[in-house]
Amino acid sequence: MGFSWYPGHMAKAVSQIKQSMKLIDVVIEILDARAPRSTENREFAEAVGNKPRIVVLNKADLADPVATRAWVDCYTEAGICAVPTNCRTGEGVAEVIAAASAAAKAGAGPDVQRGPSRVRFRTAVLGIPNVGKSSFINRAAKRARVKTGDRPGVTRAKQWIVIDRNLEMLDTPGIMPPRVDDRGVWFALAALGCLDESIYDVEALATGLIARLDSVGLAAYRSRYGVCEGCADPHEALKHVARSRGCMMAGGELDMARAADILVRDFRSGKLGRATLEMP
Ligand SMILES: Nc1nc2c(ncn2[C@@H]2O[C@H](COP(=O)(O)OP(=O)(O)OP(=O)(O)O)[C@@H](O)[C@H]2O)c(=O)[nH]1
Ligand SMILES: [Mg+2]
């Protein structure tokens, strides 16, 4: 089930990032801690070249902490600095800035001599849509400097933000890889809200999520929506969600689309428990 999806503004954004790269000392790549592999965009590698890179595992507050630890260890073994963050509270953000600053200093070889006049270093914050790039920048700046929102595609153009006298950050629009061929990756991207809702079936996503919650033993959804222990069919479980939330259409039929929407939103905001969708 391949899907080729590359809106014009994303192609433009990639070329803009390539252009900006000569100004950049360090790249900060934001991933979703609940699915670091699926939320990585390998297309960035070409644009980034050999610039130092810090990996941020954001939304760690919504991920399973044991799994996040395992991901950090996995990156460390590969020689990559990875830091879990929560950009709602700011946890981990100072650590990322310290790591970026150290990498910028280490990377300032003879060919990038700037002289004493340029004390500021510059980072580009990259990632696929909705992973929290702009939230990260607002946390780093300690105030709301750029627009954020719980849907993909909020940031439309790159924008430089001065964080302090030592640091500037480039906010960038979320960029998807041109193709997604792997079903598991597709599922994770839809589940985490990185894709436009018009391009997938929310009901199929909701039943897939129920199956996933069952397989990892996260039963919080059962008590939340009154799904009995014995119910093992995700579609039947979704009917319980519809009943418990009064999702009815004219004529008394269950409004499964609305129930699916409620469940997906509850999952994304962590109300169904802290869940990581993939392990290293
Ligand atoms: N729970 C939680 N929510 C977060 C965190 N970071 C960001 N968010 C939320 O995630 C949503 C997306 O955040 P943005 O900062 O707009 O994401 P973005 O990567 O800039 O998105 P685009 O500009 O659309 O590519 C917002 O609703 C944020 O409040 C986090 O660490 N934890
Ligand atoms: Mg943004």
Concise structural overview:
This protein is α/β, with parallel strands linked by helices and 280 residues long. Helix content is 39%, strand content 14%. The mean pLDDT is 92.
Structural overview:
The chain has ten helices and eight strands. It is α/β, with parallel strands linked by helices. The chain has two domains: 3-179, P-loop containing nucleotide triphosphate hydrolases (Rossmann fold, 3-Layer(aba) Sandwich); 201-268, Conserved Hypothetical Protein Ylqf, Chain: A, domain 2 (Orthogonal Bundle), CATH 1.10.1580. The strands form two sheets. Strands 4-3-2-5-7-6 form a six-stranded mixed β-sheet, sandwiched between helices. Strand 6 (159-164) and strand 7 form a beta hairpin. 38% of the residues are buried. It binds guanosine-5'-triphosphate and magnesium ion. The site of guanosine-5'-triphosphate has 25 residues, from helix 5.
| Form type | elongated
- The overall average pLDDT, rounded, is 92
Q: Please identify the structural class as seen in this structure.
A: alpha/beta
Distance between the termini: 23 Å
CATH topology of the largest domain: Rossmann fold
Order of helices and strands: EHEHEHEHEHEEEHHHHH
CATH superfamily of the largest domain: P-loop containing nucleotide triphosphate hydrolases
Number of domains: 2
Biggest β-sheet: count, sense, barrel?
Answer: 6 strands, mixed
| Ligand set | guanosine-5'-triphosphate, magnesium ion
CATH architecture of the largest domain: 3-Layer(aba) Sandwich
**CATH class division of the largest domain:** Alpha Beta
The total beta strand count reads 8
